[in-house]
Amino acid sequence: MSGRAPVRLVIAGGGIGGLAAALAASAHGHRVTVLERQPEFTELGAGIQLAPNGLHALDVLGAGPPVRATAVAMAELRFMDGTTGEHVTSMPLTEGYRRRFGRPYVVVHRAELHRRLLDACRRRPGVTLRPSAPVAGYAQDSHEAVVRLKTGERIAADAVIGADGIHSRIRRQMVGDGEPRTSGITAYRAIVPMEQVPVRVRRDAVTWWTGPDCHFVHYPISGGAYLNMAASRHDGGRTSFAGVPVGGDLVRDKMSALGAVRDLLSLTEQWRAWVLLDRPPSPVWTDGRVALLGDAAHAMLHYAAQGACQALEDAVVLGDLLGDAPGDGAGWVPRLLERYADHRRERTAAVQRVSRDSIRLWHAAGAAATARNRTLGAMAPDDLYDAVAWMHAARVRGPRPSRAAR
Fold this sequence. Notes:
34% of the residues lie in helices and 28% in strands.
């Protein structure tokens, strides 16, 4: 930032995407205020998967090493038929995969990833973290943007980044596309201490068990101390809810088609349920000095395991462009945000679409399931790598070193 005035950014949302954007921008000496509506900066949920593109973004942000310290590197992605118990195929994630994509495939507890990003932001002099700051909307003129809080407070900035999630207030004002769409799928999530898990399941693998209109996935988290479990059922539900406690009997009933994993579904009676939501790709990402990031821009179903990865990529691209920004005041901000959107719009839309299209892969029945198993079973590891390369390969350049980042 030598010889150049720092830009003032306000980021609405203190989740993974918002904190990552704060790190990316402040690495170039820009001043960032992160607004979080909750009284504390916390993250709900359980395990998430990080492909090499997500780890690359974390490395650019300087958060890669602490995340790796608690993450578990996976040896394979296992695809199982949950009705027959058949092992359909596996994608090895060891030497060949890491040579091709440059980094491992890891799983981590969502709260642990969030905590590492939060710790990094707290150490960064240019980042101000403000909890209990719910955003109501924004206003702007040719010189600056202003975030309006529900308390009535107004915060001026050169640029505003809406990273406030799938129910984003910034998106509501900018895009005006209403509430997110319900998928008709209910997900049930739980974690279990690994000592309670059968030995045959204690492997460094993400394992999917598929069945008609349902599937079940599990993998280790928290350094291998727990097994993260997630079951999904296409039940046609249209009422949105999140984190509702439910009992094991209900989950086992919903997953009754997956006879091969009934013992795993019986490991706990304590589950929480979510109706899965997403949005269709939007051509609108910016409004002058205001831009969207993460779920606010491209909320997607979890079937491609790319939600966090794409938010991290957003942050790195934004920071990269800020690092290249001219030094003639902040009049260039709207042009820069348009460039950011142009970089990210097509790629994230493709991931959104494949995430929804993957429902047919996971939830196939009868002849369709047989054909799927036959096709996947015939694929060699290199074929599988080719199929995911467009997502898993690092696609962001990252900033050049600056004194602020050292």
